[in-house]
Design brief:
The complex is a heterodimer of chains A (115) and B (109).
Chain A: E1 4-7, E2 10-13, E3 18-25, E4 31-37, E5 44-50, E6 53-57, E7 64-70, E8 73-79, E9 87-94, E10 105-106, E11 110-114
Parallel strand pairs in A: 2-11
Antiparallel strand pairs in A: 1-3, 3-8, 4-5, 4-9, 5-6, 7-8, 9-10, 9-11
Chain B: E1 9-13, E2 18-23, E3 32-38, E4 45-50, E5 53-56, E6 61-64, E7 70-75, E8 84-91, E9 103-108
Parallel strand pairs in B: 1-9
Antiparallel strand pairs in B: 2-7, 3-4, 3-8, 5-6, 6-7, 8-9
Classes of the chains: A mainly beta (115), B mainly beta (109).
């Protein structure tokens, strides 16, 4: 298995809802990431987990809450989002550091719409 | 963190070789240059990475001059399916992968 699987593919939620995005990989990768991508913009890093511990939080608002239950799973819990949070949310994983030639494997993303 | 500069867009005809140049003037000694490809509504896909001189794999070549202040991604004999956004990134010693604005490549039949 050489994929990163994200579910759901599409999600519409109200501003008072609580929802979760799920990401799964079975490649034994040690690091997992959440990125946010607005239309026609580059992906922006949100969180990095290394060996199941949060190592980087790019000053993301607390309405986004990441969780790494085990080495294969990464969740992003959403609560009280705003319409401007509508975007493509991408999960990625890597076996090692980018400088050592380990490319990141991205999932296809969850298209989130906040109404 | 070294900033990268790429052309916003490029057009090319099918069957031609396409070269996309990236400028990274303040690249540091330990930095590597990495390229990703992204199709609409998909995550970016790793293409190639290099440190100096030339790197080649089954899909592309990466040329890096001695001063390392720029790099060129070369795509041989492009097809319509190569239409995508191509990102040049400088990666360093931690886990952050920062994307620039990228180059939107359009292949014309």
């Amino acid at each position: 298995d050489t994929e990163v699987t994200q579910t759901p593919k599409h999600l519409v939620m109200g501003m008072t809802n609580k929802k979760s995005l799920k990401c799964e990989q079975h490649m034994g990768h040690r690091a997992m990431y959440w990125y946010k991508q607005k239309a026609k913009k580059p992906p922006e890093l949100m969180f990095v987990y290394s060996y199941e511990k949060l190592s980087i939080n790019e000053s993301v608002p607390s309405r986004f809450s990441p969780e790494c239950p085990n080495s294969s799973l990464l969740n992003l819990h959403l609560h009280a989002l705003q319409p401007e949070d509508s975007a493509l949310y991408l999960c990625a994983s890597s076996q090692g550091l980018a400088r050592d030639g380990y490319g990141y494997t991205f999932g296809s993303g969850t298209r989130l719409t906040v109404v | 963190l070294a900033k990268t500069t790429q052309p916003i867009s490029m057009d090319s005809y099918e069957g031609q070789e396409v070269n996309i140049t990236c400028s990274h003037n303040n690249i540091a000694t330990n930095d590597y240059i990495t390229w990703y490809q992204q199709f609409p509504s998909q995550g970016p896909r790793f293409i190639i990475q290099g440190y100096k001189t030339k790197v080649t794999n089954e899909v592309a070549s990466l040329f890096i001059p001695a001063d390392r202040k720029s790099s060129t991604l070369s795509l041989p004999r492009v097809s319509l399916s190569d239409t995508a956004v191509y990102y040049c990134l400088v990666v360093w010693g931690n886990e952050k992968l920062t994307f620039g604005t990228g180059t939107r490549l359009t292949i014309i039949p």
